[in-house]
Amino acid sequence: MIKKFWGAALLALSPMLGFAQTNIVDEIIWVVGNEPILLSDVEETRISSEAYGQPVDNPYCTIPEQIAVNKLFVHQAELDSVTVSESDVIRAVDNRINESIQAFGSREALEQMYGRSVSQMRENLKKQYREQMMADEVRQKLTTDVKATPAEVREYFKNVPNDSLPFIPTQVEVQIITSVPEVPRAEVERIENKLREYARRVNSGEADFSTLAKFYSEDGSARNGGELGYMGRNQLVPEFANVAFTLNDPKKVSKIVRSEYGYHIIQLIDKKGDKINVRHILLKPHIDDSEIEKGIARLDSIANDIRANKFTFDAAALALSDDKDTRNNHGLMANVDQQNGTVSSRFEMQDLPADVAKVVDTLSVGQISRAFRMTNDKGQEVCAVVMLKNRIEGHPANMTEDFQTLRDVVVNKRKEEKIEQWIKDKIKTTYVRISPDWRNCKFHYEGWVK
């Protein structure tokens, strides 16, 4: 139990819960299975929700129940031996801490609001995010077989009036040609010399790989000493995977690996079945403005030739673009929905890369932009030219144009129903104890109070 006083926040809370107006030590208010829910857990969630402009209605009833539901999934995850990537946890925590500091204005203001240091908050958030990821994995497994046929989708929406159909915001289809600026040999040698020196220091025992990664790696994993967590071969780019999966000695460092992200050196941490956990240091080449200007001039020339009907945008993308993800699709950008596992050529403006969206917003259908610089999803600075292929104005969804959206509505509803039933059944078979002062709530689910 955490011996921590919450002062004014808890004093304000105490009349609602029937407590006396005195300092209240943090306490266990619910137990779900073997997992406690602390008063401080509720307070932190409430404060965060309010800071992000999303206050929770009746928070001292709603939030404990939300946490309790998550504990049910965590309990199932432990039974199923679900594991999550520690690097993913740390990345999520770092993002949350940074967002919170921005929301409160400073690190000091954040610490004052929560009554604890950022390092203490970080440790608490690690546990929360680890549990949330485990719970999400269980949810996904429970609903992986939920589907809907076209006939079932048509039947579902057959009698739904038009004004009740989902509204599809304006969407665009965009084609792109990119040019990756050439990296001078001198810059490559500079990076390779640095990486060789890092490898020498590690191999000689002079330095620790994770320490060097924290100081020098240009990848997000630097915060975690370069550790990526357990990953399968297909989760890594081929050049990286081909080297990483040949490593056998955790004390040695790999040769230099070049990938689309930059230049790496790799150190083995552990192998588990068909997955591997490694650390890496990534250095990215620095591109001179002169090389960017050459790329922009080249693309502007290509765009002018397309406008002069010397060749089509499709043909130019296939023959001249450096973007391997779109080149074979004639430059058509793909909107990948990781959550639903779907791919579409349509984007809402906020789903496009910011640099692309800013340019597309100024174009008419069929118009080609001037060349511009952008940062791609690999973190590379590249030159690009885009054409607005199509714009679909906002409209109520229909089976002809928006079948995927309507099917997602049906599938998501079925997933929610399956999850709801699982929660109800799980409550019946899970030990739950709620402190007397916290029982006088109208909970969403029945059966919490035994």
Which helices and strands appear, and what pairs or packs with what?
Blueprint (H helix, E strand, L loop, with lengths): L7 H10 L10 E5 L2 E4 H13 L7 H21 L6 H19 L2 H8 L3 H26 L6 H8 L9 E2 L2 E9 L5 H19 L5 H8 L14 E2 L5 H7 L12 E3 L2 E11 L2 E9 L5 H19 L5 H8 L3 H4 L7 E3 L4 E3 L2 E2 L5 H7 L11 E4 L5 E12 L2 E2 L6 H27 L2 E3 L16
Antiparallel strand pairs: 1-2, 1-15, 3-14, 4-11, 4-13, 5-8, 6-7, 7-8, 9-10, 12-13
Helix pairs in contact: 2-3, 3-6, 4-6, 7-15
Can you put this structure into words, describing what you see?
The chain has helices spanning 8-17, 39-51, 59-79, 86-104, 107-114, 118-143, 150-157, 185-203, 209-216, 238-244, 289-307, 313-320, 324-327, 354-360, 403-429, and strands at 28-32, 35-38, 167-168, 171-179, 231-232, 257-259, 262-272, 275-283, 335-337, 342-344, 347-348, 372-375, 381-392, 395-396, 432-434. The strands form five sheets. It has a four-stranded antiparallel β-sheet. A four-stranded antiparallel β-sheet has the order 5-8-7-6, with helices on both faces. The chain folds into three domains: 8-145 and 415-438, Orthogonal Bundle (Triger factor/SurA peptide-binding fold); 168-181 and 287-396, Chitinase A, domain 3; 185-283, Chitinase A, domain 3, CATH 3.10.50. The chain is globular. The protein is of the alpha+beta class and 450 residues long. The model is unreliable at 1-24 (pLDDT under 50). Helix 2 packs across helix 3, helix 4 (86-104) packs across helix 6 and helix 7 packs across helix 15. The longest helix has 27 residues, at 403-429.
